[in-house]
Amino acid sequence: MTLREVQVGQAAKVVKLHGTGPVKRRIMDMGITKGQLIQVRKVAPLGDPIEITVRNYELSVRKADAEMIEVELVEVA
């Protein structure tokens, strides 16, 4: 499952980052790394961008980048 498929309010853990070179580096520079917890906060009306919370800060990610982030859903306590 990719980050793009996660619904608003759900949380997920990063399993793997797809993509290569500068694209993967940019995603990692934003703080999205393997094992990191991500919560989807909002999705724009046309689905792009997606606002997430990662490492206690808000971040907007494009759909194309969200498709490169493989995640698994987790329950938030």
Describe this structure in words.
- By secondary structure, this protein is an alpha+beta fold.
- It has one domain (3-74): Ferrous iron transport protein A (FeoA) (SH3 type barrels), CATH 2.30.30.
- It contains 2 helices and 5 strands; from the N terminus they run E-H-E-E-E-H-E.
- The chain has helices at 21-29, 63-66; strands at residues 11-17, 37-43, 50-54, 57-61, 69-74.
- Strand 2 (37-43) and strand 3 (50-54) form a beta hairpin.
- The model has no long low-confidence stretch (mean pLDDT 92).
Summary keywords:
five-stranded antiparallel β-sheet, SH3 type barrels, 17% helix, 77 residues, 2 helices
Layout of strands and helices, then pairs:
Elements: E1 11-17, H1 21-29, E2 37-43, E3 50-54, E4 57-61, H2 63-66, E5 69-74
Antiparallel strand pairs: 1-2, 1-5, 2-3, 3-4
Query: Biggest β-sheet: count, sense, barrel?
Result: 5 strands, antiparallel
What is the helix/strand order? Answer: EHEEEHE
CATH class: Mainly Beta
Please identify which CATH superfamily we are dealing with.
Ferrous iron transport protein A (FeoA)
